[in-house]
Amino acid sequence: MGRRAAPQGLHRPNDPPLLILTSLADGPKHGHALAKDIEQFAGVSLGPGALYGAITRLEERGLIEALPSIDRRNPYRITAAGSAALAHAVNDMKRLANVGAKRLSTSSVRPAGIPS
Amino acid sequence: MNDRDLSRLLRWYPSTWRDRYEGEIVVFMKDAYGDRPPPRRERLSLAVGGLRERAEQSGLTGDSAPVADRVRSGALLVAAAWAAFVLAGASFAKLSEHFDNALPGGLYNPTPPGSAHHVPDLAYTLVQTVASVAAIAFVVGIALGVPAFVRFLRAGGWASLRLHVLRAVAASELTIATFVPLLIWAHNLTGQQRNGGMPQYGALFLGWAALMAVTLGLWTVAFVAVARRIEISRRLLVAGSALAVALTAAMLVMLAATAVWWASMAGTAPRFLAAGPARRRSTRNSRPPSRSWCSPALSPSRAPSASPGAGPCSVAGSGSHVES
Predict the structure, then answer these.
(1) Cys bridge to B38: A74, A85, B42, B132, which one at CB 3.0-4.6 A?
(2) Residue B46 to residue A53, Cβ atoms within 8 A
(3) With an 8 Å Cβ cutoff, is B50 touching chain A?
(4) CB-CB: which of A47, A60, A72 is closest to B41?
């Protein structure tokens, strides 16, 4: 079974790189602010290992970049390539969500616990 | 926690990574936890993250390292696994000593040998044969890299290896120095004393075995350090990869054969696996067997195995009385 490759390894909605790009789309943030923002909008608590592992990969691939340090905190901002990768991933998810919603609306089985 | 304590949590990461991110993570932890120590979950996150980063930088995972480096890292991982296999193999050799005496038709198991007797024998022979072939493949792999190693040394590479090699040499000297008195002591002990009957000797032997494991580990580290630094031609890389694949296959076969040996021993001579080393082997002065080793009156749990008069049943349930 084939799978269309997502750009820059952004596969799942809870992938740390995708969460970081989504958070930075709103403006530059340093590590702790990123973690708090991600927890707020996605309900995902990223440990320092996962967070900085993802930051390392994103920085290597030029999807984010570090800004000058402020009080020992390094803010990061999303690059043009990062915005493009995020847009691609969001479109993929949107397409999947649309297909899912469409099929659910025509399905004879109603999802339990979800108001119609 | 102060900055230094927090920095210590980052010891799992490679030094180049720490140079770039250490300060940031320390501030991150201070922002998140203040002066309180970070919870265990966060420490684990850092440990896992550090190991992942090491795997990434060495080329074992991810796609950031060049293909040749990734292939080389894979081959080195197999070499390190082989070192662990050597230790496991030594333990298995000790555990399985004289197992054939416990099988039907063996020295202490008068039950007529049936077809079940052949399975552990065949499995054991397979382990030995494959281990020998794999050891030769490993030596061939090392020999292939010698010219590149010599070129590396001539180009002044010794300085980067000095610490690794000196540590391994020092551990080797200590292992050899402790082996000699251990050997002399062992020579004056009975088989039963050597195999669990004398706690002092057992403790010293275990200490020596641990030292041996450390020595092997340090040589493996030195080997990996050499292999990561030398210039490897494409042909040598291909040959090394082929040997790594062969070594991996050999380890899988040995693992399967060991499992078969274990299962068949559990079926045909379960007492051999249940008995401890001291019970598995007899004293130097133990009498030859005069009756079946499975008599309840002389079961291993009741018989004083250290006694010079202890019969073969006392030696184990395993039925083995041959000294190791």
Answers:
(1) B42
(2) no
(3) yes
(4) A47
Residue B224 sits in the same domain as residue B79? yes
Single out the residue of B161, B144, B131 nearest to residue B251, CA to CA. B131
- The number of distinct structural domains making up chain B is 2
pLDDT of residue B55: 85
At B310, give phi and psi (nearest 5°). Answer: -60, 135
> Hey, is the C-beta of A83 within 8 angstroms of any chain B C-beta?
no
Neighbours of A52 (CB within 10 A): 28
A56 touches chain B (CB under 8 A): yes
Convert B5-18 to b/e letters by CB count within 10 Å (16 or more is b): ebbebbebbeeebb
CB-based contact, B65 to chain A, within 8 Å: no
The verdict on a CB contact (< 8 Å) between A31 and B53 is no
Q: Please answer yes or no on whether B49 and A60 come within 8 Å at the CB atom.
A: no
Residue B73 has pLDDT above 80, yes or no: yes
Q: Determine, for residues B45 and A56 on separate chains, whether the beta-carbon distance falls below 8 Å.
A: no
For residue A66, report the phi and psi dihedrals to the nearest 5 degrees.
Answer: -85, 140
Domain end, chosen from B16, B38, B58, is at B58
Q: Other CB atoms closer than 10 Å to residue B268's CB: what's the count?
A: 21
Average per-residue pLDDT for chain B: 80
Does the distance separating the beta carbons of A60 and B25 come in below 8 Å? no
Interface size, chain A vs chain B, as Cβ–Cβ contacts under 8 Å: 60
H or E segment to which residue B77 belongs = helix B67-95
In this prediction, the answer to ipTM > 0.90 reads no
**Over 70: is that where the pLDDT of B259 sits?**
yes
Q: For residue range A40-90, list pLDDT tens digits in order.
A: 999 999 989 999 999 999 999 999 999 998 888 889 999 999 999 999 999
* Residues B31-64 pLDDT 10s: 888 888 888 988 998 999 999 998 888 777 777 7
- Are residues B125 and B262 both part of a single domain? yes
Least confident of B38-47, B76-85, B303-312: B303-312
Residues spanned by the domain of B209: 67-269
Q: Which of B21, B27, B44 sits opposite A73 (nearest CB)?
A: B27
* Binary contact (B53, A53; C-beta < 8 A): yes
In angstroms, the CA A17 to CA B75 distance is 30
Q: Name the residue with tokens 């990996």.
A: B224
